[in-house]
Amino acid sequence: MKVRRHAGLLVVVLLASLVFGAGLASAAITLYSWEGVDGISEQQQIAKNYMEANPGVEVIAQSPPGTSADYLQKVLTQVAAGSPPDIFQIGDGDVAPFAREGRLTNLTPFVTGANGINEDDFFAGPLEYGKYNGEFFAIPKDFSPLVLYYNKDFFDEAGIEYPSDEWTWDDFEAAAKALTQVSGNRVVRYGATFGNLAETRFMIPFILANNGDVMNPEATRATGYLDSDATIEAIQRIADLIRVDKVIPTKATMEALGGGDQMFVSGRTAMYFHGIWPMATKFEPSGLNFGTAVLPKWKRHASVLFWAGYAMFDTVQDKEKAWDVLKYFTGPEGQTIMARTRMTANKQAAENVGALDDPRLVTFYKLADYAEVPFDLKGTPEGVIGREYFVRALEEIFFTDADVREVFTRTAKEIDDEIARQNL
Amino acid sequence: MIKRLSRSNTLKFYLLVSPWLVGFVVFVAGPMVYSMYLSMTRYTMLNPPSWIGLANYTNLLRDARFLKSLRVTATYTFVGVPLRLIFAFAIALMLNNIRRGKDFIRTVYYLPSVVSGVAVVVLWRWLFNPEVGLVNHILGWFGIQGPGWLYDPDWALPALIIMSLWGVGRDVVIFLAGLQGIGVQLYEAARIDGAGGWQCLRYITVPMISPTIFFNLVMGIIGSFQVFTDAYVATQGGPMDATLVTVLYLYLQAFGNLRMGYASAIAWVLFVIIMFFTLLIIRSSTVWVFYETEIGGKKA
After folding, report:
1. N- to C-terminal Cα distance for chain B?
2. Which one of 3.40.1650.10, 3.40.190.10, 3.40.50.300, 3.40.720.10 gives the CATH number of domain A2-144+307-368?
3. Which of A387, A391, A413, A423 should be substituted to probe chain B, the one whose Cβ sees the most B Cβ atoms within 10 Å?
4. Contact between chains at B258 and A97 (C-beta distance less than 8 A)
5. ipTM of this complex prediction, to 2 decimal places
């Protein structure tokens, strides 16, 4: 009897907490991010600032426990369970699939609405990465282009002028050869190093710069693009610098020397292609005398981004309210806090932290402004297939010394065959 | 009276096993049935699954990458598992004949199995580095120019198989327990009849330990077909899909391409394959596995 009464009480308490909890949850705007302690504390600061400016609105910024690799899994689980967060950090590759499934709120009406944003307040490149079929489904949070780091001391020693905005690939090749140092038959210093070789976004800017591409502009077909002379030439010249001239290390050598970041810090490479990530955490603290330059020009300048944005699920009840929070996080107030440690798409925020007057940082912003959306982020299912095959083609070239023309010609056909087979 | 007692015992039995039963139904059987259903749907997790019948399965049969992943997994299993058994058996025999310090050496061999998967794989990446790795360094002593290992499509899978020998300690301990269970009198009798070391091994040790070999074989095959961490951390399936094991392909389809239905179909095909080989081994065991209780059974 006694037990039963207690059980009844327990049920009442549980029910009450459920109802009460649900009431609380629906009042607050939840924002999810994959970032670790530093990144999430910035976002919590922004949430706090927003709540102070907008009393009565609660914003909860959090990152689910576990590694960032588990993040997507956790978000998907929440979606499947019917309780997704309101706003969430989304990777460049996920915007199209999520939008295609109809689960993201189309933000275009909000962008152009009364409480909208002025697109001119943003750098053009990163804004494009949040679009699917020409409509906004995410607004940029932070990103990085591929940039050319160079060690100024080595350039001074060799009497070579620092890379300028008009530097061509020929200039780059000449410098890479001149800066390579060999002792016996061992390379003690490489002319240049790629942060990654068999990764699409480390190679695409050079293909685009040579007026080549992996797929057609609509990202539905590979023949005529991946097997074009322009595309083959771009990768051939990079491969030759590794195989023939030996002024760029293979992936195995890179790993043997502690990875690209470590090679740049310890002077084992004079130039280094990578994103912004190691700059503040590794390069600056090391006291290295280095500069940054835009990617060398081929027939034109080109750039692509590694990108993250904020998107809103379609389940959000009060979309106006959530949009206001999203706008604040991606606007000057929120972005000024984030721009201290990463790149922002918001021009005002970039100015506020002096990024555009910083000779190193300004390069990144130049590259961001003319960044293009690569084939695999254009949101077509064909692009997903193209990406899978393209990665394997790059691995074949960089890991087995295969003939570039043969590999790309064969792969272009394989991609189109697979697209036809899947009946897309 | 007896009936009543047994009924209350039955009740107690179910009460006591109920945590396991509930756990099994909720966390194993339920999800399995659900994944069977999902395998016949198109499901991105973003929207409710939509029924597409057997389309996922028929697509799998024409999916070159999936078929490649099966070949990779089969090679990994049918080369790796026998190798590991032979290795483990040899080490166990050695340990069994050591008089002093056996416990210590046994611990040393078992120790690697305790270290977590990812850390071990990172360690092996260094050992296999073509330029500064220990493996090629040692090969160099014999004038052998080592291959590119994880960077070479022809050598990446062999490298993963060699890596899998790292966990041999668990099999060693089980073999050792089996070896210690063999009665000394069998060997003594054989010696008196003039049997040599090889004959003792062939006609006493191996038959007597065959249940242990059977157990390690079955567990090895099942575990090997399900390998994921090694390939995921060491090579991400590359280069050129040389190490694209089936579970890794399943993972890539599920969380890379949001094809949960397709991934579920892969899981079920893999389940059937594992089941097939497990049953095959169990059926074959009547021929080659010897249980001491069999003799007792015949006598009675």
Report:
1. 34
2. 3.40.190.10
3. A391
4. yes
5. 0.83
Residues of A in contact with B45 (CB under 8 A): 76-77, 79-80
Query: In angstroms, rounded to a whole number, what is the distance separating the alpha carbons of residues B21 and A423?
Result: 45
Distance from the Cα of B8 to chain A's closest Cα (Å) equals: 23
Nearest Cα to Cα of residue A158 among A180, A133, A126, A182: A180
**Token pair listed for A409:** 């010609």
Tens place of pLDDT per residue across chain A (424 aa): 444 455 555 555 545 544 444 444 447 999 999 988 888 899 999 999 999 999 999 999 999 887 777 898 899 999 988 889 999 999 999 999 999 999 999 999 999 999 999 999 999 899 999 999 999 999 999 999 999 999 999 999 999 999 999 999 999 999 999 999 999 888 999 999 999 988 899 999 999 999 999 999 999 999 999 999 999 999 999 999 999 999 999 998 998 899 999 999 999 999 999 999 999 889 999 999 999 999 999 999 999 999 999 999 999 989 999 999 999 999 999 999 998 888 999 999 999 999 999 999 999 999 998 999 999 999 899 999 999 999 999 999 999 889 999 999 999 999 999 999 887 6
Give the residue on B whose Cα is nearest the Cα of A198.
B239
- Any A CB within 8 A of B131 CB: yes
Separation between Cα atoms, residue A301 and residue A294, nearest integer Å: 9
Contact yes or no for B46 and A76 at CB 8 A? yes
CB contact under 8 A, B240 and A77: no
| Chain A residues in contact with B257 (beta carbon < 8 A) | 384
> Which chain A residues touch B240 with a CB distance below 8 Å?
392, 395-396, 399-400
Distance between B45 CA and the closest CA of chain A, angstroms = 5
Sole residue written with tokens 């004079």? A270
Determine whether the interchain pair A421/B152 forms a contact, defined as Cβ–Cβ distance below 8 Å.
no
Asked if the Cβ–Cβ distance from A399 to B125 is below 8 Å, we say no
Instruction: Inspect the interface and report whether the beta carbons of A396 and B153 lie closer than 8 Å.
Output: yes
Find out whether A204 and A259 touch, Cβ atoms under 8 Å.
no
Domain boundaries, given as residue ranges, for chain A = 2-144+307-368, 147-302+380-421
Q: Which CATH superfamily is domain A147-302+380-421 in?
A: Periplasmic binding protein-like II (3.40.190.10)
CA distance B91 to B87: 6
Query: CA B222, B224, B226, B230: dihedral to nearest 10 degrees?
Result: 160
- Which listed CATH number (3.30.70.260, 3.40.640.10, 1.10.3720.10, 1.10.3370.10) goes with B57-299? 1.10.3720.10
Q: Give the DSSP letter of residue A350.
A: H
The minimal CB distance from B152 to the residues A72, A384, A399 is found for: A399
